Amino acid sequence: EGLLEKDQRDNRNIGAHGASDILGRVPGGGPVTLLTHCNTGTLATAGYGTALGVVRALHQRGSLSRVFCTETRPYNQGSRLSALELRHDGVPVTIIADSAAAAAMRERGVQAVVVGADRVAANGDVANKIGTFQLAVAARHMGIPFYVAAPSSTCDPTLASGRLIPIEERPGTELTQLGGVLLADPDVDVWNPAFDVTPHELITGGIITEWGVFAPSEVCRAL
């Protein structure tokens, strides 16, 4: 029960710090349009969420216009889980295909990208659900701040960089089948990594923790 209370408190602090930092970058102070990836909410944490905690904090302040959720292929945590949570809370949410993310940034007025993290290396490189890296690249090109929201416990100072983070590879059938229905040649070669590593220099907004927002290169030292 103590861990439950601490996690919820930390997540609410992450949400508050992230919301304030994002609004401080927006002319007029909002409302803002965000884009997020995978699931980082109540279903992924003890409650409230990390990146979705930032979404919730903005919504509670009346400062959120809309959040775009990538479907997050191949396991669809964004469409199955994040969108469900946000709809339940009355948050304006739109599901997009992963391949529509860059177009959404350009055509739908996305003002910040906020994602979670499974691990943060000492130099600020971040491992997160596959597809995060390409979102960071697109956001950098578009001049949109890219944030990572994660509790301080995610930092691993024993790893000098993200290159040392082991990456899980999932069964190829997650891409070639859906509910037992073949979507591709069953014998085709498949590469299906579950995570990727986003280099610290692409995290232009910063890493949001329960203690505040930090530059990626400073976060593990500061915490």
Task: Briefly note the CATH topology name.
Answer: Rossmann fold
Proportion of residues in helical segments: 25-40%
Mean pLDDT: 95
Number of strands: 13
- Major sheet description: 7 strands, mixed
> Low-confidence parts, pLDDT < 50 over ≥5 residues?
none
Give the neighbour order of strands across the main sheet.
3-2-1-4-7-12-13
Note the beta-strand portion.
15-25%
- What is the CATH H-level superfamily? Translation initiation factor eif-2b, domain 2
Total domains: 1
Keywords: Amino-acid biosynthesis, Cytoplasm, Isomerase, Methionine biosynthesis, Nucleus
GO molecular function: S-methyl-5-thioribose-1-phosphate isomerase activity
Pfam family, one: IF-2B
Family: Belongs to the eIF-2B alpha/beta/delta subunits family.
Secondary structure elements and their pairing?
Elements: H1 2-25, E1 32-36, H2 51-60, E2 64-70, H3 77-88, E3 93-96, H4 101-107, E4 112-115, E5 119-121, E6 126-129, H5 132-142, E7 146-149, E8 155-156, H6 173-176, E9 177-178, E10 181-182, E11 195-198, E12 206-209, E13 212-214, H7 216-222
Parallel strand pairs: 1-2, 1-4, 2-3, 4-7, 5-8, 7-12
Antiparallel strand pairs: 5-6, 6-11, 9-10, 12-13
